[in-house]
Amino acid sequence: MFGNEYWMGSQNACRDLQLKQYYEQTPPFNTTFFVAKINLTVDGDHIPKSRLMLVGQCVPASCNSSDISAVLGLAEAAADKRAVANGIAASYRTLYVRPVPGSYDLLADIKLQILGTVTTIVALWMLVASFYEGYLERKYRKAFERLNLEVNRHNNNYKPSTITNSSQTDNKTDDEDSKEIRRDRCGVWSELILSFSILSNGRAILSTQKPNDGALTCLHGMRFMSVIWVIMVHTYLTVWYIADNKTMRTVTERNFLYQSVGNASFCVDTFFFISGLLVTVLFLRSEDKAIARRIAREKKKADIDINKNANGFTNTALSVSVSVLSQHSFYEDLVDTPKSNVYSKREVFGMVKSFFVLVLYRLVRLTPAYAFVIGLNEVALRYTHDRTVFEPAIFDHITCDRYWWRNLLYINNLYPQREMCMVWSWYMANDTQFYVVGIILLLISVKHIKFAVISLFALLASSWATTIYVSVWHQYKARIQEPFEMFDPLYDKPWSRIGPYLIGMIVGWYLHKTKCQVKMPYWLVAVGWPCALVIIGSLIFGMVDGYFEVWPTAFYVSIGHTAWGVALAWVAISCCCGYGGLVNSALSYRGLLPLSRLTYCAYLVHPTIMMYTSFLMDGPLHLQNSIVLTIYAGYAVMAFLASFAISLAFEAPAVRLLKIVSGGSGNRKKQRVTENVSP
TM segments (predicted)? Predict the structure, then answer.
């Protein structure tokens, strides 16, 4: 009745039967466990379609796969005879038999050895750096206390209570400062070692101090909510796969609220929107600072040149009277000098250099954690496939072994799903490709803003047209039951998902130009919020009948993603400009800041945790929604805990190393543009 396809017995019980210290009677032979995959076909009056079943068998260890197949072959013949005798057209065929566990030797796997070596080196580096930083902080604190003591004694004002209060005040001030000074700055080599310190990296990740761009804090809440939405969807897809009551999925899919799972592709669009917004804002801020520095240098140079006399000495008498004139002339020249519409060789070289440096910084920041998770995922799933009684639908132990390089080049979304390592990493490829497009548009906009804007809208329109064409060509009908039916032609392709990213770039430009100081009439606020909520609600819960016809589907999968970005645009602008109310308070809650910083690694690692824990179970689950939500809560906690460890070991050190290489605070343009652009 429930559609149970798993008749597994118990592998653990099969192994436990041999423990003589716990049982008076045990088998007189060693036992082993086999799983057989069987195809059962019965006429339409009894079972409307063929069913694939997994059957577990505990047998003597002397048996092999051929022996089990022979036994099942006799059972097939007997079943066929009984079906014919009862007038039923049925067939029962064994597809394969495999031992559980298989022959895989985990410790002999070269990938595990490499992964273990890297983990050990990084862990030792982190410990050394942490102890070293602890020593430096203790030394700095003692020196600071001695200095305070000497100052107070010198002033004959030594009062313990005053010092204590002063120290507490200083500590409070330090806590409020996002860049708290705890030690003296060291040399380059020492800073390279300290970049892996658990102390400073842990404080940076777990800090609840709002960043300097306080107006954009709502993005942290949006990022966190999107990640837990992704984890919820993947939890449902994973546990339904190992459930014995598969017809319960059909019942659940008819539930109105289940559309938040079946139509959850928009949660990733939130990541794209945030990435486009942040890349634009950070790029424009860096450009403004560069222009300000250049203007300051030119002003200083002009003042020096004008105030020099014929002998080359500075004429102090002219310094005051000429300064206003020189500044005025400089600004007039800056504004009135005609600019060529053609790029010079120097400008082209500068743009190309900036482009490659920006892309390189992004890759260096994201790839270490990404590469580690790829290796971890391959080893974990190879072990899982060898020891599971189920048949996982993802074969990352094969695809990651063959195609890992596509992930590190961020082009894996351009290949079929069956060849993808870490299927969920299609987002990483899309986001990086969008970043490349975004940086090109931003570099062009420095000199040709109109051309950049026209190109942006042309990309948006071509994305709609291409997606509609592909959807109609395949006669695609969107269904809640099959959210990934068009994964290869549409779902993960950049030309169908770039809309929210471009909308995010527009919003980023608008917020930067207005400095988040937008005055909205109350009628606009009263209309804007309901419209945004209607768009979001209709995109998630609009598939009332469970499916769309061909043309509604075409518009849904094309313009729908952009519409999601438009709705988020209103939320972001309203919250950043002071019209968010309770929504902004919730999204900007300081407690979400640490979780927001962990979303990137949480997104990468959570499916590995799900598959490892689910498919190593002894048997299937009998599910209800309440059980799924409980499991989901556990997965979310485990994902963020694992993310914290991976961030400490790889992501945070990579960011600090980039700062050291780029010259620390003196040259932060490239590093800032690449920050906070992923989940």
Answer: 112-132, 224-243, 263-284, 355-376, 424-444, 451-474, 494-511, 523-544, 564-586, 598-617, 629-650
SS (H, E, C) 406-472: HHHCCCHHHCCHHHCCCHHHHHHHHHHHHHHHHHHHHHHHCCCHHHHHHHHHHHHHHHHHHHHHHHH
pLDDT tens-digit readout, 590-626: 999 999 999 999 999 999 999 999 999 988 888 888 8
β-strands 6-7, 51-60: how paired? Answer: parallel
Q: Evaluate the omega torsion of the peptide bond into residue 101 and state whether it is cis, within 30 degrees of 0.
A: yes
* The length of the chain, given as a count of residues: 679
CA atoms within 13 A on the CB side of 297: 6
Burial class (CB in 10 A: 0-12, 13-18, 19+), 51: middle
Least confident of 153-167, 487-501, 506-520, 568-582: 153-167
pLDDT above 60 for 18: yes
Cα→Cα distances 188→126, 208, 369, 659, 662, Å: 17, 28, 23, 11, 12
Share of the chain above pLDDT 90, in %: 52
The DSSP call for residue 339 is: P
**pLDDT digits over 255-302, tens only?**
888 888 888 889 999 999 999 999 999 999 888 888 888 888 877 776
Are 279 and 438 in contact by the 8 Å Cβ rule? The answer is: yes
DSSP designation for 515: T
Mapping DSSP to helix (H, G, I), strand (E, B) and coil, where does residue 341 land? Answer: coil
Task: Give me the phi and psi of 104, to 5 degrees please.
Answer: -70, 130
Of 360, 375, 496, 487, nearest to 430 by C-alpha is: 496
Looking at the DSSP bridge assignments, the partners of residue 149 are none
Q: For 55, phi and psi rounded to 5 degrees?
A: -125, 125
Within 8 A by CB and 6+ apart from 273, the residues are 500, 501, 503, 504, 507, 564, 565, 568, 569, 572
Q: Which residue has the higher pLDDT, 166 or 288?
A: 288
Full DSSP string of 168-230: HHHHHHHHHSTT---S----HHHHHHHTT-HHHHHHHHH--PPPS-GGGTHHHHHHHHHHHHH
Model confidence at 37: pLDDT above 70? yes
State pTM to two decimals: 0.86
- The whole-angstrom separation of Cα 471 and Cα 556 is 10
| Residue 636 near residue 231 (C-beta atoms within 8 A) | yes
Residue with tokens 């390189």: 360
Contacts 24+ apart (CB under 8 A), 146-151: none
The token duo for 558 is 């094309």
CA-to-CA separations, 160 to 142, 143, 371, in angstroms, rounded: 16, 17, 54
586, 221 contact by CB (below 8 A): yes
Bridge partners of 40, per DSSP, are: 51, 92
Residue 71 neighbours by CB distance under 10 Å: 16
Tokens read off for 577: 């400009």
- Band of pLDDT at residue 524, cut at 50, 70 and 90: very high
- Across the strands, what pairs with 55? 7, 36
Q: What is the DSSP string of 581-636?
A: HHHHHHHT-TTHHHHHHTHHHHHHHHHHHHHHHHHTSSS-B---HHHHHHHHHHHH
Look at residues 386, 410, 391 and name the one whose alpha carbon lies nearest to residue 108.
386
Both tokens of residue 481? 């039951």
Neighbours of 497 (CB within 10 A): 27
**What is the C-alpha to C-alpha distance for residues 87 and 82, in angstroms, rounded to an integer?**
9
